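Take the subject:
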Amino acid sequence: MISSTNQILRVCLANQTPVYIGNCIRYMILGDTKDKLSVSFSYDSAQGLFILDHEKTYARAPIKEHSSLASYYSLPFEHGKSCPCYTMNINPDVYSFQSTNTFVRLSCSTLLLDSKDNILLTRRDKKLRSFPGAWVNPGGRLDPGETLNDCALRELKEEVGISVEQKEDTMKGHYKYYYSGRECEVKPFMVYESVYPTLLDQGFPRVQYLIIFYYVKIHTEFPKIKVKIQDEEIDKGIWINLQHLMSSIENKKSTPDSLNCHNLVNGNVKNDSIPGETFEGIYPNSIKEGLGEGHYLALKHYYSQFVENTMQIEE
């Protein structure tokens, strides 16, 4: 891995158009339409160059990975319902935003699941300045010289103590992954455009990320997965069944009094419950919690692609 901190990470479209803070990527690709968008992308960590291209078909992502270059195909692309960059871009006469020609940043976020599709969720400490009380998946910013896979797995280790080993299969051109000596699944499955502030009445965009969402599925049940929560930014961690969580979130008629979960206390798993209103609505909800919008969309995509489809096949 290149260690130079002077490397500039560049995000561009396939026609070499740079993507700067303030540019809505979805609008740059599709214009003012409501069509679903899926994308292909490649990232050269040696050059710090991320190329994003329009892919017209939805499919699971075939992967080409090498030591510094990786390409992924046909991943769904999402952005916020009230994306401020989109609002500015379709109303240029109304909003006089002055671009600083600063590239959009890259980051990775990881859904951690066990063999029964229980998912680990963490709550950001309520004392933090940004997104206090938001429920999120482990993740963070890409470092210069770092591959996307390296970033996703590093953040997983730093934030929740999960070490996943990757070994390159040179014959097949991709990696295999192992947790505690047992093979596990690691794949990107969604791309999300994140902008802060999230609303224009809070000011023009100051930070903009392109988040690559991964999932890591460990083929054992969660009591055997040793989680160690980083308590500097996280004040709570739970294991919760994804099917039950999504059923509760998508039920618009009523909110359950509570949801069964397993709380993480000093590295141990404790049978517990959490108020149903915790996940009622996108963050910040009525109790100033809830899933961050990108994290909610990632859970929704994973659930529809990998859980619901499996359930239908089994039926």
